Protein 1
Amino acid sequence: MSHNPEPQPYAALRAQAIESLLVEKGLISTDAVDALVDLYERDIGPLRGARVVARAWADPDFKTRLLADANAACAELNPSIEGLRTRLVVLENTPTVHNMVVCTLCSCYPWAVLGLPPSWYKSAPYRSRAVLEPRAVLAEFGVELAPGVEVRVWDSSSETRYMVLPQRPAGTEGLGEDELAALVTRDSMIGVAQVASPTAAQAA
Amino acid sequence: MNGVHDMGGMHGFGPIQPRDNEESFHADWERRVPGLTTAAARAAHVNLDQFRYAIERMPPAQYLSASYYERHLFSTELNLIEKGVLTHDEIEQRMESLRRDPSAQPRRDEPAVATQVIESRLASELPPPVDSTRARFKPGDAVIVRNVHPSGHTRMPRYVRGKRGTIDRMYGVEPLPDANARGQGPAPEPLYSVRFDADVLWGGSADGRGSVNVDLWESYREQPREDPA
């Protein structure tokens, strides 16, 4: 028995048992499970959302269309956003309004534009506190808002998905869309960060 | 149901610590869960609301200590058992045999199905245009959320029940999760995003100027109240 590998944790073994039974019964196939793992991990990430933000910053008409009907606007992009199958709503941050997204009941997240959610988004502290004390939550992410700024929290309780259009930082006037997209972070599209200006980012 | 999953406004879970909680998966086995869950739901005809309702039925202490993908695994298993696809004993026995021989995991490939799974996952679909003809309310209308406590699945968080909000946006007609989770058809209803002032939700505990928008189906609301003046 000395050749046995480390015993599997209980949940891992249980997952393996369920998968093997379903495979054996011919109900699922192994490569379909493999393919989804690869898709989630390799191909879908926040760069998709960042491209949408960069286009909106660069093209005011696109921004107007995006805020009115995000699904249609995302379909215009080349390449368009794949896998957008439910209603997407894009919320614009301004000097007076700050939007922030949560799902208090489970962990709904705009997968098609931001990829896999980080653990903290799915955690009890974020889910419980984002609606009750958004400013305290933002402070933990290093965002300090002036008292006059209105904080709008969006609790994703339906199949509508929300993404934040962050404010365009100063010092980005001459940048092209690719350079703009490179500045946009996942957290800024969840609404727990602001996009730093490129000079500030270099200094940091 | 008034479960521990309904976390909005609860205290005691501590700081968020985003820098220590960046990863999407906590262990290698979790990477297979999204694919396993998706494939099992297809095979056993489990809809999204049935999937969520099974997560909500996880015993509360277990729910709080479980990772996100442990909850998904629990839900997948519960639905497979309830639909008669697998039995509890069958899973226990298979765990025992895998414990003895970890290489006893069968493999079956169907490339055409795998391609189809990915293609359907990447397919985009424009939501239907908002149909307001069935909607009783319009943006700007004041509404009060019903003060009810259904024991089944619902997407009406506790923290908005009995509270007054304003219709902010309309999202057309969508399946009612409460009905869909029972597997008795989607019973579609008008869906709205309703804005609640932070003061209305949290009174003196609100932490500044702001609001919370919650997506709510039409039957989650009382009749609009007449102007109190």
Protein 2
Amino acid sequence: MERLDTISSLQYFVPEIVLVFTLMAVLVCDLVSKNRAPRERRLLIVIPSLIGLVVALSYSLQGSEAVSAGLFHNMVAFDGFGQMLRVIFIVTSIFVLLFTLHSNELRLVHHGELLVLLLTVTVALIWMANSINLLMIYLALETVSVASYVMVGYLKTDRLSNEASLKYILFGAVSTGTMLFGLSLLYGLTGSLDLFEIRSALSSQEVVASSGPALMVILVLVLAGIGFKMATVPFHFWCPDVYTGAPTPVTAFLSVGPKVAGFAVLIRFFYGGLASPSEDGASWAMVGSVDWQTMLMGISVITMTLGNVGALLQTNMKRLLAYSSIAHAGYIMMGAVVLSGEGIQAMLAYMIIYLFMNLGAFLVVIVVHNDVGSFDIKDYAGIWRRAPLLTIGMGILLFSLMGIPPFAGFLAKWYIFSVVIDAGLGWFAVIGGLNSAIGAFYYLKILKTMFIDGSDTPEPSTPLALQPLYAGLLLVLIVPNIIGLLLWGYLDRVTEFSQKLLDAM
Amino acid sequence: MIEYVGVLMFLAAGALLAAAATTVSGLVAPHNPTREKLMPYECGENPVGSPWGVQFNIRFYVFVLVFLIFDVEAVMLVPWAVVLKELGTPALIAGFIFIGMLVLGLADVWRKGDLEWVREEERAALKTAPKNAKAA
Amino acid sequence: MISLEHYLIVAAALFSLGLYGVLTRKNAINVLMSIELIFNSANINLIAFSRFVSGDTEGQVFALFVIVIAACEAAVALAIIMSLYRILKDVSLDEASVLKG
């Protein structure tokens, strides 16, 4: 691996630089357009943001050369894994940016700061996913957190939004503080902040012998911070409340962006600092005195079970999707415990498919809320008669989330389960399968409400108001779920590329 | 430890001298208090309420917040300034980008009217309904 | 002579106090103060380790960043508490209980 200094790092850092300058430009545009008409002003901030994001996306799609380097004196990694995640984050931001445009919840507030915050979080997510230094991990994680606290509380006059924001910030600050304490102890144990130096320190026998239970304590503390971002048990308590209170576009963003970044940090931290790669680079072996593989396995099982069981009782759509996202975090975690490149690839494939199905589901929630003005599942009754196409779309998304065969969600689950079985953890895959079966209940409950309930009322039904922009976005989000089987070869190739490059790290 | 004894003696001598001066002037000076003389300010506003339970205007809060952020961000500039000579031009440019971002933040606060004692919207509200606004 | 252990004990005590405060306090401002304790306990650790274990300045730089981040977080948290106070007229966490289930 190459270790680059500040100047020579910049060539691999173009998308981030573009995003930083975009967010500064958007802030300036917002300030100078203060006295213009709201509609005109919104265009003046939305268009530069979109241009910046698209330019950054086109740059990140180019970087396919097989380079892997430690940028800025080993602060930030540049490898296939990171490039892949960079694309995921930017795509998520583009979708969420478009979600905010016609959302009724955000109709009365000015979007300027929201877009600046969104861009800030996007940049910070990219850093978070690529940090290979404890300082950088903490810094990026906090940048993501602080900006998303404000995004959650963006509706200043709305009680729920404020309450969600307060819960998020108190929970988040405690989790990251706990993680910070763990990081400081790790620094003391190994004498370095660089993950690879930590790995070599932990590989030596005397450190292992002298550390005793210290490493165990450190890992528990650090998992508090990472688990908070991934929303895994036991750091999931904030998740349902925050998802319910936040404006729905922000919820959609939180359910994908920080979660994926949390898993990226998990991989970087554990595979980079606490495991050493094999000769061919296709698998890892744990170093140090702690069996963290079992620890992650336990978290994964509890997370998916609690997520699915919690979702069964929900009557609010956003709360239900929050619990469903907790369950999905459990499934994604399965890929992290097998300690192989295949596992990472399966995780990435799952995350990409999850992006489409989850953002799609939240977009349907936004569309229904725009017309009905409610998030209660019982108010979804009779949507079928008012908007058949939307209902079918939601059906596809929910079947995909369930993991029913022809749709992409099935492929994601199947891939991750098969990797787990290959690693000789058959029982683990069985638990995952059982959980998917529980999950089917609540997804089907929504479908039943939408299709069957309220269909016997004789009142004439007016078609549901659906903005053309949202219709187009829904199409973009749903189609990959249908033709997932056809795209599989492509997805496999793309994610494999990311897996191979991580090995060179 | 022994080298600090001088400091201690200096402090003690200072305290003694000050105490002596106030005691002597208290004994010697004529004592003839009137109501006006006992006020904190002879020709200012009359203070209301106890000095211990001062209620700060909530508007100070925004200023404190803004000050806090910029104050703490400035901490980052101190180590930068110390090693600037060794690091050379790239560090100089990086530092100025950092300062530029801070300036942008300040411009944002300024333009949004948070540095005004009475904001524009509030001023407009005051003009239309002066009595209500005062009562609130 | 003050050794590494002394610093670590102080830091661990501060961390425990902070965590205890977070779990028991009902007032949002008090919780925030407890969180600051947690951050500062980590700072003590970092600086002590930087002095006694690694011998470089990495830990001290880390502590500086932590101070900055903690200030930003406190500012945002206070702003959110203020905003909630305008709606609820109370900063007790028991009042912020519409979201549950």
